[in-house]
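We were asked to recover a plausible sequence for a given structure. The inputs and outputs are reproduced exactly as logged, with field labels preserved.

PROBLEM: sequence recovery
POSITIONS: 485
GIVEN STRUCTURE:
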């Protein structure tokens, strides 16, 4: 077995691993990156980029179907060529992966070790059966993988995860999506709009990442108006039909009746789990949480073992690409400069679901605020509905509800949850305000053009400002910048 000694070993070659490697390299040339699978990030291969390609195809269909609402009537049969849809998804996906691989190719071959690493002790890693690495510092950046009940494996190749969807050559006839979270909503709605028979099932009533009950209720109703969604379904049975490539699902429908749904695939979108269970962590002195994930400082990403750091989805903090990149820079930098540590910049939380209408969350969630401030009535909620908001109605995209949260006394903006048109863009404006610790009054002093969807944000800000007793009461149909604002 080959034995090597390095200053820093990074386990994983995805977004977090690549970022940590580069950050550590700024301090020492003695860095290796260990990767057991193909290079190319989750985002590029099976996550945010291919899913947006499928969503873009679905949106093009939806625009055509909405055209009669404007008095425009497309002629002829609308044909959705599943093979052409999936061909573009895969071609563009491969292009995005190629950009990542170009960066990987620039890394010296001696810094890349192929294989799966396991801990032998706090300083030693065994890579497959061929290399033993002694490292002064280690960064765990092993990412995550889809998680679902083990019994579903009985469905064989009829059970798929989002990774599998983007390798389809054609669109199937029918799919059951389990898990109305981010992945389930995005893929489920897209497949529905592309002509696939879809039912989306969940347990416990949760829809997306939303924590505000009113936004959750609105979102559930909005989705149910378009496709079948039961966020708390009772499944009586689910089995592979003998001698066929179909799965039969029997469930209790919204009418309380037993219904049978036969599908080509069951898409498991029931969450992801950090890839730390195969690292042999029990051979280390790492302290782990209830899920077996090493605990780490939020600002330094240092674990309970001072020279071991963790970053990205493996940390189980916020599994988003921009968070993985930030964590990678912090963990890699601290591993490189150890024992000197620096607290890294942790930006204001921002997340989005690219459904239609989109869902977005910024800053502290309603659930977090209720736990921290709810008992003392120390925060207020401002609201706006996009159903009558001027620009939204102009574009026939007038579905949605926005809640903004602010602190009593200081008037500081604390966070927001929303479902609505262009929520991805509204969320960025609000995230910038949150990171700059702006007050509601300061936000209202910012410019708002007319007519734009952003005027809805101003309406919500005015609503909460009045509830904070820091501004005038709301005026219905205010005309200070034009009708419909």
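RECOVERED SEQUENCE:
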């Amino acid at each position: 077995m080959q034995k090597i000694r390095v200053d820093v070993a990074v386990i994983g070659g995805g977004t977090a691993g690549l970022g940590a490697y580069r950050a550590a390299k700024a301090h020492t040339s003695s860095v290796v990156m260990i990767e057991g699978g193909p290079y190319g990030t989750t985002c590029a291969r099976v996550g945010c980029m291919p899913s947006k390609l499928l969503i873009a195809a679905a949106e093009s269909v939806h625009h055509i179907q909405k055209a009669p609402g404007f008095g425009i009537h497309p002629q002829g049969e609308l044909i959705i060529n599943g093979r052409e849809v999936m061909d573009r998804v895969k071609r563009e996906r491969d292009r995005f992966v190629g950009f990542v691989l170009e960066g990987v190719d620039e890394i010296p071959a001696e810094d890349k070790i192929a294989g799966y690493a396991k801990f032998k002790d706090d300083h030693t890693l065994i890579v497959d059966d061929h290399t033993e690495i002694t490292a002064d510092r280690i960064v765990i950046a092993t990412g995550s993988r889809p998680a679902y009940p083990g019994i579903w494996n009985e469905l064989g190749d009829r059970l798929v995860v989002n990774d599998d969807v983007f390798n389809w050559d054609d669109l199937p006839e029918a799919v059951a999506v389990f898990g109305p979270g981010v992945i389930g909503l995005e893929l489920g709605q897209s497949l529905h709009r592309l002509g696939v028979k879809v039912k989306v099932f969940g347990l416990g009533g949760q829809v997306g990442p939303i924590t505000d009950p009113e936004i959750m209720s609105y979102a559930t109703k909005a989705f149910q108006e378009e496709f079948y969604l039961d966020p708390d379904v009772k499944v009586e049975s689910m089995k592979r039909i003998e001698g066929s490539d179909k799965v039969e699902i029997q469930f209790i429908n919204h009418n309380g009746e037993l219904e049978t749904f036969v599908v080509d695939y069951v898409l498991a979108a029931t969450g992801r789990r950090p890839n730390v269970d195969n690292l042999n962590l029990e051979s280390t002195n790492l302290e782990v949480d209830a899920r077996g994930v090493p605990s780490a400082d939020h600002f330094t990403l240092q674990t309970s073992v001072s020279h071991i750091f963790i970053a990205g989805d493996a940390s189980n903090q916020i599994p988003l690409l921009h968070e993985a990149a930030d964590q990678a820079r912090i963990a890699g930098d601290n591993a490189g400069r150890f024992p000197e540590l620096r607290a890294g910049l942790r930006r204001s939380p921002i997340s989005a679901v690219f459904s239609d209408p989109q869902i977005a969350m910024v800053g502290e969630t309603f659930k977090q605020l209720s736990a921290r401030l709810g008992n003392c009535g120390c925060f207020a909620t401002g609201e706006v509905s996009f159903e009558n908001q001027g620009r939204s109605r102009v574009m026939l995209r007038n579905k949605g509800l926005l809640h903004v949260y602010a602190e009593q006394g200081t008037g500081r903006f604390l966070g927001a949850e929303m479902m609505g048109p262009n929520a991805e863009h509204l969320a960025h404006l609000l995230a910038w305000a949150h990171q700059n610790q702006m007050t509601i009054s300061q936000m209202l002093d910012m410019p708002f053009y007319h007519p734009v969807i952003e005027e809805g944000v101003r309406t919500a800000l005015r609503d909460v400002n009045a509830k904070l007793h820091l501004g005038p009461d709301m005026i219905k149909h205010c005309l200070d910048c034009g009708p419909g604002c």
